Automatic annotation (TrEMBL), chain A:
Keywords of this entry: FAD, Flavoprotein
Basic and acidic residues bias: start-end ranges: 683-692
Subunit structure: Homodimer; forms a dimer in the presence of potassium. Interacts with GTPBP3; forms the GTPBP3-MTO1 complex composed of homodimers of GTPBP3 and MTO1.
Protein role: Component of the GTPBP3-MTO1 complex that catalyzes the 5-taurinomethyluridine (taum(5)U) modification at the 34th wobble position (U34) of mitochondrial tRNAs (mt-tRNAs), which plays a role in mt-tRNA decoding and mitochondrial translation. Taum(5)U formation on mammalian mt-tRNA requires the presence of both GTPBP3-mediated GTPase activity and MTO1 catalytic activity.
Name used for this protein in its record: 5-taurinomethyluridine-[tRNA] synthase subunit MTO1, mitochondrial
GO cellular component term, pick one: mitochondrion
Organism, scientific name: Macaca mulatta (Rhesus macaque)
PANTHER family: GLUCOSE INHIBITED DIVISION PROTEIN A, PROTEIN MTO1 HOMOLOG, MITOCHONDRIAL
Lineage: Eukaryota, Metazoa, Chordata, Craniata, Vertebrata
UniProtKB/TrEMBL annotation, chain B:
Subcellular localization(s) per the UniProt record: Mitochondrion
Subunit structure: Homodimer; forms a dimer in the presence of potassium. Interacts with MTO1; forms the GTPBP3-MTO1 complex composed of homodimers of GTPBP3 and MTO1.
InterPro entries according to UniProt: G_TrmE, GTP-bd, GTP-bd_TrmE_N, GTPase_MnmE, MnmE_dom2, MnmE_helical, P-loop_NTPase, Small_GTP-bd
GO cellular component, one term: mitochondrion
Listed cofactors: K(+)
Function (record text): GTPase component of the GTPBP3-MTO1 complex that catalyzes the 5-taurinomethyluridine (taum(5)U) modification at the 34th wobble position (U34) of mitochondrial tRNAs (mt-tRNAs), which plays a role in mt-tRNA decoding and mitochondrial translation. Taum(5)U formation on mammalian mt-tRNA requires the presence of both GTPBP3-mediated GTPase activity and MTO1 catalytic activity.
PROSITE patterns noted in UniProt: G_TRME
Major subcellular site: mitochondrion
Gene3D superfamilies recorded: P-loop containing nucleotide triphosphate hydrolases (3.40.50.300), Probable tRNA modification gtpase trme, domain 1 (3.30.1360.120), tRNA modification GTPase MnmE domain 2 (1.20.120.430)
Catalytic reaction list: GTP + H2O = GDP + phosphate + H(+)
Organism name: Macaca mulatta (Rhesus macaque)
Protein name per the record: 5-taurinomethyluridine-[tRNA] synthase subunit GTPB3, mitochondrial
GO molecular function: GTP binding; GTPase activity
Length: 692, 522
């Protein structure tokens, strides 16, 4: 295997307006100066690419370090993006001007919105993606991002220096050491190493170290992190074998066609790159008792299944499906890997049997009787770091300016990784410019729920986004991600382009205007019945009915409403997206009012910041039980709201914390009035700490 | 910014597994100031009981209960006839005081109702308040918390707030346990279980129905009988999804509708429902043959329990209402705690332990002449030590250690073991030490009953009704044929109300059911 590790080749960098610190390459400098960046991102997967581009969008000179440039944007597992909950995440990544949604709109081969009939709050945008196209488009995007430099190299160690006194943490990261011994300095470092930390690939009884099939794991880095005191856990995941397309008999299988018209992932696209009729179908087949038999007879040859390492309860391998739900037929979706790909991805057949048995099992499935396995399925076991060791801005508690994003935090899925990547990239950049962190609350987005769950509760299985995890599901919808995040992303993070910002502003004001107009139009129910005969409105109601309430009926949309009341509603039907979004707002209007009240309550709790440097184990001003102290010490919640979500933290403890916060705030207010005493007090505090 | 803090503790009080606030969104508008009410005088015998409200709807509630257009003059006592807004039935002629915010105890609009102290009147007014939209029963310590939030208490005054909240939470928890210990509890848990399962199935259908090849088992799990076949037909991802939606809804629908009927029937029945066992719960416990039944008979001045020299005479929990030093008390005699006896007595011991959990005050009884026996030592080490080990702020459960049969101790002999915690000597036979015990009981009961709102059964019942009604209201919004996300939201709110009564209710619970029942996976 050809491996370019650590060769230090500067692959590509695009320079636009600004001059880059590539001076170290220029020959006229007397001594070879060490390169210096604002942000270094280690890893070029779904978290890494989003992190690097987000940091660059925020104005940081960014270096993306990856094992191999040609694997940037690689989809290592399933050839699809999105789904229920995951599609929500992609919309939010896009609202922050992230990449994956736009790239998917350019690379898909089969677009389909799931949950179409279950309500727009839970629609799941999903697409089969052409792996090759995705990678190409992603690499093009990455290599053309201003301020972003890409270098091949494996990171062996972190450069650590004295901590900044005004922040917590025992040291500060200031760069990385590559395998070849060279160093690169940076103000912030983001680790997105995926399954590469002490990764092990398992097929049958064979195990060998690798981050992904064909790629070396990162061992030095794993040791460094462990030495620093990070709590490390182990997780496992798996991927199915790949089958030769021409060896499958599709004619006898159920065919699924894509949506017509296709719904794009990105707010900036009105349509996708490919027409529905040119898209590829998926096929459905089923396992049978013969498959169960092969699994059960060969458990002794399957060390991945026997291991105790935690795998997910969902998305299990075919082995665990057979073991947990015996005597059932399980679905197998045959998904295309790309337009001109010869491979088919059998979704549902993730397995770690020895290679020869994999083919044996596959060929007893209907339609796959003559199937050829091109690449065997395999399992991966890897280290993850307990995510309670990071803050909601994804910076670690232990090491200042070190950020983690993606599978390293115990998540699974491209979308979960991308979501964390954007947040880590933004915050690494904000940290350099000494601006306050950009935190998405769980009242604002799925990204917030994801990160809050991870940082306050941790995880013991690969964490995946579900809509059922989201309390305010009806408010946090795929359709309104731009209103929720684009404006904040522009103002607070600076990661959103002017054009996108203006688009979102226009949409927001149009929606608000539209809703208030719809509220202002009131007729009796019998008049509505006359105007729109198909509406199932009860005419016995005596009170006038608002147009917004009429729009709630399933059989009514903006078009029919505008036909009935052309003035002033006609103008809201000109933009299709606006008309559709008004309909959605109407559908949920009554519930949203209640949710908004609840959201305010949660946000008030989250506005109550806990001091970052508080030492829960020793602090005397707060009366807390030992158990509560340990829990707070480990998770280090940043707000009272987060603290109250930690299991085992009692209401009485919350009140005590509140009292402490209030005292601290009073003290700070007093300090601000007299800055000099402030300094003295601080010094005195510090002295006391030392004495202790 | 401090307005939100009550929501927090309220939310934390609901249990650690809650991932986020799922408050009773169906009823009040929380977070931004729901209006709360509570009985704020103690449980002791009294002529007048004080019921307080705090929050923006206080004035509204006052007008509704007094059927008046205008509010009475601020901060003046006025005599008004209170009547139930639903039935118009008069409740009591009471003094009402109107305190517009911010010049009030909590800083919000407050009303005080000074009503005649009988349980029927108090219960009637509490229920009438509960029926006013926007009002709900207060959480533990919520009045004080609001006062704190609005800057009405300074930091030293609030020093004891955490202790108070803890004590009130504990007292309310015990009170809730008592209510849930019985038919109502059984019903509530059953309903919560049904609802949780229905919600888990709907959530599974939303999250995994189309994305993750939720296998056909979902239908059988749902209990649909006519879709029992195992043919590999999968409507998921196929265009004819309407088919599947129709298939899922009948089962969830039937269960939810059945639940609605049951809740409705229960609520209509609630007024002549269970007898309220008012008063402090005092439980007599100890090893067998310590003289527990003798003490119960002595305190109640009537032969409640059979007394015999044979250990294990009392096998069930016997309760009797008594008046101790002016406080209403429910006195429970329990089986002697010991291991390894017959099944009937074992059940008695189990019930005794359960009752112990619910006690406000424990009378721990030992045989003074038999302190060295294994059963005595064991009792000291487990029951007495575990309650005694907690500081008063950690537990509002109180314990009095009584050494009976002092007449058997020789007057000159060495006293009881020196390592014993503080205790009282008593002889049920001679009555010696009874005065001392009564005095100690009076002090303890004053502390238990004097604390307003600690687990008042009237308030607990108002809470029950409030949440059951909230659950019922939410269920009426469950319409699975339309937007399934909206239907699930209705179930979420309904379940939120029920789990406020029974505990639990986190997202993980739902996910556990999903992954247990369905093979979800790609």
């Amino acid at each position: 295997m050809f491996y370019l590790r650590g060769c230090g080749r500067w692959v590509a960098a695009s320079f636009t307006k600004q001059q880059f610190p590539l001076v170290r390459l220029s020959s006229d400098s007397a001594a070879p100066r060490t390169p210096h960046f604002d942000v270094i991102v280690i890893g070029g997967g779904h978290a890494g690419t989003e992190a690097a581009t987000a940091a660059a969008r925020c104005g940081s000179r960014t270096l993306l370090l990856t094992h191999r440039v040609d694997t940037i944007g690689q989809m290592s597992c399933n050839p699809s993006f999105g789904g229920i909950g995951k599609g929500h995440l992609m919309r939010e990544v896009d609202a922050l001007d992230g990449l994956c949604s736009r790239i998917c709109d350019q690379s898909g081969v089969h677009y389909k919105v799931l949950n179409r009939r279950k309500g727009p709050a839970v629609w799941g945008l999903r697409a089969q993606i052409d792996r090759k196209l995705y990678k190409q488009n992603m690499q093009k995007e990455i290599l053309n991002t201003p301020l972003l430099t890409v270098q091949e190299g494996a990171v062996e160690d972190l450069i650590l220096t004295e901590p900044e006194p005004e922040h917590t943490g025992k040291c500060r990261v200031s760069g990385v050491v590559l395998v070849d011994g060279s160093t690169v300095y940076a103000e912030s470092v983001i680790l997105t190493t995926g399954t590469f930390l002490r990764g092990m690939i398992v097929i049958g009884l064979e195990m060998h170290p690798a981050g992904r099939l064909g790629d070396q794991p990162s061992i030095g880095l794993a040791q460094t992190l462990e030495k620093l005191g990070f709590v490390v856990g182990r997780l496992k995941t798996g991927t199915p074998p790949r089958i030769a397309k021409d060896s499958i008999n599709f004619s006898i299988l159920n065919k699924q066609t894509p949506d017509n018209p296709s719904v794009p992932f990105s707010f900036t696209n009105e349509t996708v790159w490919i027409k529905p009729e040119d898209q590829l179908p998926c096929y459905l087949t089923y396992t049978n008792p013969r498959v169960d038999e092969i699994v059960l007879n060969n458990l002794h040859l399957n060390s991945h299944v026997k291991e105790t390492t935690r795998g997910p309860r969902y998305c299990p391998s075919i082995e665990s499906k057979v073991l947990r739900f015996p005597n059932r037929l399980h679905q197998v979706w045959l998904e295309p890997e790309g337009m001109d790909s010869d491979l088919i991805y059998p979704q549902g057949l993730s397995m770690t049997l020895p290679t020869e048995l994999q083919e044996k099992m596959i060929t007893c499935i209907r339609g796959l009787e003559k199937a050829k396995v091109i690449q065997p399925g395999y399992g991966v076991q890897y280290d993850y770091l307990d995510p309670r060791q990071i803050t909601p801005s994804l910076e670690t508690h232990l090491v200042q300016r070190l950020f983690f994003a993606g599978q390293i935090n115990g998540t699974t899925g491209y979308e979960e990784a991308a979501a964390q990547g954007v947040i880590a990239g933004i915050n690494a950049s904000l940290r350099v410019s000494r601006k306050p962190p950009f935190v998405v609350s769980r009242t604002e987005g799925y990204i917030g729920v994801l990160i809050d769950d991870l940082t306050t509760l941790g995880t013991s299985e690969p964490y995946r986004m579900f809509t059922s995890r989201v309390e305010f599901r009806l408010s946090l919808r795929p359709d309104n991600a731009d209103i929720r995040l684009t404006l904040r992303g522009y103002k607070d993070a600076g990661c959103v382009s002017q054009q996108r910002y203006e688009g979102a502003c226009w949409m927001k004001s149009s929606l608000e205007e539209g809703i208030s107009v719809l509220k202002s139009i009131e007729f009796s129910s019998s008049k509505w019945k006359n105007l729109i005969p198909e509406v199932s409105i009860s005419t016995s109601r005596s009170l006038p009915v608002r147009a917004l309430d009429v729009l709630k009926y399933e059989e009514v949309d903006m078009d029919s409403l505008a036909k009935a009341v052309p003035e002033p509603l006609k103008k809201y039907t000109k933009c299709r997206e606006l008309a559709e979004r008004l309909k959605i707002e109407a559908t949920y209007e009554s519930v949203l009012f209640h949710q908004l009240q609840e959201i305010k309550g949660v946000q008030q709790d989250e506005a109550l910041q806990l001091p970052k440097d508080i030492d829960y184990l020793t602090i005397r001003d707060v009366s807390l039980s030992h158990e509560v102290r340990e829990k707070l010490h480990f998770s280090r919640p940043q707000t009272i709201g987060a603290a109250s979500r930690i299991p085992g933290v009692t209401p009485a403890a919350i009140i005590n914390l509140l009292r402490f916060v209030k005292t601290t705030q009073q003290r700070q207010a007093a300090m601000n009035e007299s800055p000099k005493t402030d300094q003295c007090l601080r010094n005195a505090d510090r002295l006391q700490e030392r004495q202790l | 910014m401090w307005r939100g803090l009550w929501t927090l503790a309220a939310q934390a009080a609901r249990g650690p597994r809650r991932l986020c606030t799922r408050r009773s969104s169906g009823a009040a508008a929380p977070g931004s100031g729901a209006t709360i009410f509570a009985l704020s005088s103690g449980q002791g015998r009294c002529g007048i009981a004080v019921i307080r409200t705090s929050g923006p709807s206080s004035g509204h509630a006052l007008r509704i209960l007094t059927a008046a257009r205008d509010l009475p003059p601020a901060r003046h006592a006025s005599l008004r006839l209170l009547s139930d807004p639903r039935s118009g039935e008069p409740l009591d002629r009471a003094l009402v005081l109107w305190f517009p915010g911010p010049r009030s105890f909590t800083g919000e609009d407050c009303v005080e109702f000074h009503v005649h102290g009988g349980p029927a009147v108090v219960s009637g007014v509490l229920q009438a308040l509960g029926s006013v939209p926007g009002l709900r029963p207060a959480e533990a310590g919520e009045f004080t918390r609001r006062a704190f939030a609005n800057g009405k208490l300074n930091l030293t005054e609030v020093e004891g707030l955490a202790d108070l909240i803890h004590a009130e939470t504990e007292a309310q928890r015990r009170q809730a346990l008592r209510q849930l210990d019985g038919e109502l509890g059984h019903l509530c848990r059953g309903w919560a279980e049904t609802l949780t399962k229905a919600l888990a199935h709907v959530e599974a259908y939303i999250d995994f129905g189309e994305d993750d090849n939720l296998e056909e088992g979902v239908l059988e799990q749902g209990g649909s009988t006519w879709w029992g076949r195992k043919t590999p037909i999968s409507p998921q991802r196929l265009p004819s999804l309407s088919l599947f939606a129709c298939l899922l809804s009948p089962t969830a629908d039937i269960e939810v509708r059945a639940l609605e009927v049951a809740l409705g029937a229960h609520l209509r029945d609630a007024r002549r429902g269970q007898r309220l066992r008012s008063g402090a719960h005092v439980v007599v416990t100890g090893p067998p043959n310590a003289g527990k039944s003798s003490l119960v008979n002595l305190l109640s001045r009537k032969p409640v329990s059979i007394v015999s020299p044979e250990p294990g005479t009392t096998r069930d929990v016997l309760e009797t209402p008594v008046d101790l030093a002016g406080f209403p008390v429910l006195l429970s005699d329990t089986a002697g705690l010991r291991e390894g006896v017959g099944p009937v007595e074992q059940e008695g011991v189990r019930r005794a332990r359960e009752r112990l959990e619910q006690a406000d005050l424990i009378l721990a009884m030992l045989d003074a002449s038999d302190l060295a026996s294994p059963s005595s030592c064991n009792f000291l080490a487990t029951v007495v030590a575990s309650v005694g080990a907690q500081s008063p702020s950690d537990s509002s459960q109180r314990l009095l250690l009584v050494l009976n049969k002092s007449d058997l101790l020789s007057p000159e002999g060495p006293g009881p073991r020196p390592d014993l915690p503080p205790h009282l000597l008593l002889s049920c036979l001679t009555g010696e030490g009874l005065d001392g015990l009564l005095e100690a009981l009076r002090k303890e009961l004053a502390a238990v009953c004097g604390d307003p709102s600690t687990g008042s059964p009237l308030l607990t019942r108002a809470r029950h009704q409030h949440h059951l009604q909230g659950c019922l209201d939410a269920l009426s919004h469950y319409k699975p044929s339309k937007d399934l996300a909206l239907a699930a939201e209705a179930l979420r709110v309904a379940r939120g109300h029920l789990t406020r009564l029974t505990g639990g209710g986190g997202t993980e619970e739902i996910l556990d059911i999903i992954f247990r029942d369905f093979c979800v996976g790609k």
